[in-house]
C-alpha cells in the first residue's frame, strides 16, 4: 500500500495510511471539484494555483524538492480521483485490520468473516473455469500487445445482501472491472462504489459511474501490474444494463441519465463476437472471442459500459 501511494505522491509521513478520515477524503473530493470547475470555465493563474494548494492541504502530497504540480488536464484529474478512491479503500482495509480479535481466533479467518464476502475456488478442470479462462484470452485486445495474461486461479464471489438489493432491469451481462491491488479489500467489503454524488467531478469519459468492459485487457490495464509486480485481480460482475444509452463520442454525463435509460454504452470499433450463457449466472451473457472489428466511426476502440447505481452490480 505504501509503495502504491508513494507512486501517487501521497505523503504518508505527514498523514500515515489509515489516519486520513472519511471526512478528509470527502474534503479532497470537494477541493478537486473546485479545480474541475475552474478548468471548465477557463480559469487559470492564481485562482487555479490556490485551488490546487487547497487540494494538497486536504490530501497531503510529497513532491520532494519540486514545486507542487498545478493540475491542468482531465487526465491529471483522473489520477487524483484514483488516489482518492485508493485512500478510501485503504481506510476500509486498515479499519478492518485494526478491530480487536479473540486471541484464539486466526487473524485471516477473522478478516475473512468481516468481509461478509464468500469466496469459493473454482476447480481448474471445471467447465466454468475453462470458459472464463478462454474468454479472458480471446478478448485480449489487439492494441494491448505489450503484455499477456495467465490465469492463476478463479474464485466465485458472493457478497452478502447484494442479491437481495440487486436492481434487475434486464439486459444482464457479465462484464470485467479492473483495479489496483490496494483497492481490493475495500471493494470486497463495500462493493464497487461511486465517488460522493454531492461533488460534481468530471473527467471520466461518461461521468461519475462504475465502468466495465467486455474486453478483458481493457479492464486489466486498470490493475496497473508491472514486470516487477506482475499479479493483478480482475473482477467479473453481473451488471444490469437495462435500456442502454449508446454513445459514439465523448459525451460527459454528470447529473443523471435521461429518463427511461439505465446505463450508458460507449460504443467501440472492436467487440466480442460470441456470448456464453449459464456461466456463474442463469441470465447473464459472458462476452467471448474472437474479437471482431467493425468499420464504425467511433471515439472508442473498445466498448465501455457504465452504470450509475451500485445496486445494478453483483460480483460473481
UniProtKB/TrEMBL annotation:
Gene Ontology cellular component annotations, sorted alphabetically: nucleolus
Keywords, sorted A to Z: Glycosyltransferase, NAD, Nucleotidyltransferase, Nucleus, Transferase
One Pfam short name: PARP
Compartments in which it is found: Nucleus
InterPro entries per the UniProt record, alphabetical: ARTD/PARP (IPR050800), Poly(ADP-ribose)pol_cat_dom (IPR012317), Poly(ADP-ribose)pol_reg_dom (IPR004102), Poly(ADP-ribose)pol_reg_dom_sf (IPR036616)
Record-level GO BP terms: double-strand break repair; protein poly-ADP-ribosylation
UniProt-listed Enzyme Commission number(s): 2.4.2.-
Reactions accelerated catalytically: NAD(+) + (ADP-D-ribosyl)n-acceptor = nicotinamide + (ADP-D-ribosyl)n+1-acceptor + H(+)
SUPFAM superfamilies in the record: ADP-ribosylation, Domain of poly(ADP-ribose) polymerase
GO MF terms, alphabetically ordered: NAD+ poly-ADP-ribosyltransferase activity; NAD+-protein mono-ADP-ribosyltransferase activity; nucleotidyltransferase activity
PARP alpha-helical domain ranges (all copies): 1-98
Limits of the PARP catalytic domain: 106-316
PANTHER family in the cross-refs: DNA LIGASE, POLY [ADP-RIBOSE] POLYMERASE 2
The protein's name in its UniProt record: Poly [ADP-ribose] polymerase
Organism of this sequence: Stegodyphus mimosarum (African social velvet spider)
Amino acid at each position: 500500500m505504501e509503495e502504491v501511494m508513494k507512486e501517487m505522491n501521497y505523503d504518508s509521513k505527514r498523514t500515515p495510511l489509515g489516519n486520513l478520515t472519511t471526512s478528509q477524503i470527502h474534503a479532497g473530493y470537494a477541493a478537486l471539484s473546485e479545480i474541475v470547475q475552474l478548468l471548465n470555465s477557463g480559469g487559470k493563474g492564481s485562482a487555479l494555483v490556490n485551488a490546487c494548494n487547497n487540494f494538497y492541504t486536504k490530501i497531503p502530497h510529497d513532491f520532494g524538492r519540486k514545486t507542487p504540480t498545478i493540475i491542468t488536464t482531465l487526465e491529471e484529474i483522473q489520477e487524483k480521483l484514483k488516489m482518492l478512491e485508493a485512500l478510501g479503500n485503504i481506510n476500509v482495509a486498515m479499519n478492518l485490520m485494526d478491530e480487536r480479535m479473540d486471541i484464539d481466533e486466526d487473524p485471516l479467518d477473522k478478516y475473512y468473516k468481516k468481509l461478509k464476502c464468500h469466496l469459493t475456488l473454482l476447480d481448474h478442470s471445471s467447465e466454468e473455469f475453462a470458459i472464463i479462462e478462454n474468454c479472458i484470452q480471446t478478448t485480449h485486445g489487439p492494441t494491448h500487445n505489450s503484455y499477456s495474461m495467465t490465469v492463476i486461479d478463479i474464485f466465485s464471489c458472493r457478497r452478502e445482501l447484494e442479491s437481495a438489493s440487486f436492481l434487475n432491469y434486464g439486459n444482464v451481462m457479465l462484464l470485467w472491472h479492473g483495479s489496483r491491488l490496494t483497492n481490493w479489500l475495500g471493494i470486497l467489503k463495500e462493493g464497487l462504489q461511486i465517488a460522493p454524488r454531492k461533488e460534481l467531478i468530471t473527467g471520466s469519459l461518461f461521468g461519475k459511474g462504475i465502468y466495465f468492459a467486455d474486453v478483458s485487457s481493457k479492464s486489466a490495464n486498470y490493475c496497473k501490474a508491472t514486470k516487477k509486480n506482475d499479479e493483478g485481480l480482475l473482477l467479473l460482475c453481473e451488471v444490469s444494463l437495462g435500456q442502454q444509452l449508446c454513445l459514439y463520442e465523448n459525451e460527459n454525463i454528470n447529473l443523471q441519465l435521461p429518463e427511461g435509460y439505465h446505463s450508458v454504452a460507449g460504443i467501440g470499433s472492436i467487440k466480442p463476437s460470441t456470448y456464453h450463457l449459464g456461466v456463474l449466472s442463469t441470465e447473464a451473457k459472458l462476452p467471448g472471442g474472437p474479437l471482431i472489428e467493425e468499420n464504425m466511426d467511433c471515439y472508442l476502440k473498445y466498448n465501455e459500459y457504465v452504470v450509475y447505481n451500485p445496486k445494478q452490480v453483483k460480483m460473481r
